[in-house]
Amino acid sequence: MESNAAMATAQNVLFLGGIVLLVGSVIGYVAQKLKVPDIVLFLLAGIVLGPQLTGVVNVDAQSALNQLILIFGASYILFEGGVESHLHVMKNVWITLALLATVGVLISALVVAPAAQFVFGIPFLVALLLGSTIAPTDPATLMPVFKQVTIKQRVAQTVVSESAFNDATGSIITVTILGLVAGSGGVSLGGSLVHLLEETGIGVGTGIILGYLALFLIAHEKMAFLREYMPLVSLMAVIGAYLGAENMQASGFMAAFVAGIMLGNRRLFGFTLEEGEQAALEHFVSTVSLIMRMFIFILLGSQVKFALLAEHWIGALIVVFVFMFIARPINVFFCTVIDRGARWTFKEQLFMCWVRETGVIPAALAGILLGTGAPHAKLIASVVFVAVLVTIVLQATTTKLWAAKLGLLEDDPKA
Asked: How far is CA 283 from CA 69, 239, 348, in A?
């Protein structure tokens, strides 16, 4: 009996993989023809395939399979983002990046909280918990968009890097406020700040170590005995960076991103690859990232619960629009004005105000709140689902149009 059950589970997983790859491939082709970000169509396809409609795809959000796909998928997409980031660009905007990834998350939560309190009639701390849950931006969403919409490097890399680093801030703020809401003892803002600094340091340090080790194995002049296995080393680097950081209570996503930065900026550390080897590695990384994109967003769409959305959708829309059109602009202008050295233009600031999709990280935080039975967890989850749907469908599809309008496309002579 157990053997039959295991066989049935294996067949279901294979069926899921086949469906996602088939549908994802077709949708990817359609997205190219329509010239829209593929993640939008992946998400919509997931809704159609999910148990709320056809029931073809039915993976519980709390299942080990779903968590595995989310963790590895988001980590590898972030790794690819790191590979395509340039330190010489990031060093000129590091103040803005640091502010957006820390203070910016808190600003977003504080601006959203009064609106949520007014709309839903909930206590302020619960409203603040809601705000902190949706505050982090989503690297799994932003990376695919910027692969299809080529804009000025410093703008794209600032937004992508923010999404890699602010998940730690969002998680810590959310857990801290959850402790206050639940009346847990021993919760302090000072302790949370120290925890954030520790988590950031460990995450960055782990990424540097694993990234350097990967470079040593594939690109060292004399010791690169795994050069022929570069794709496998990239997989090991992502898994090692994530697990290494998480086991030390730090951000695994941040570590995966930093490991990617190490590989992408290898010349700065004295490592080189031949042109053919580099092309092969980049092709593998982009292919795995595409597959993970298909799985993440089709599954995310399939887990949208219509009943939960219907219960609070009007209030959720109001809160999300406050988040998009008030909280984010305040956040961006505050963080960029302080960084005078970066000399951000008004058009660049406007672009960053608009492009900040919600996705995997807030969805995961909402799942944690549901799992722990947090006060008003279902309400918070419904707002998160609305934020995911609205920001991905509305913002991701208009990124290129907005960038062109502002003259920020790389091939635009005004850029």
From this structure: 21, 19, 30
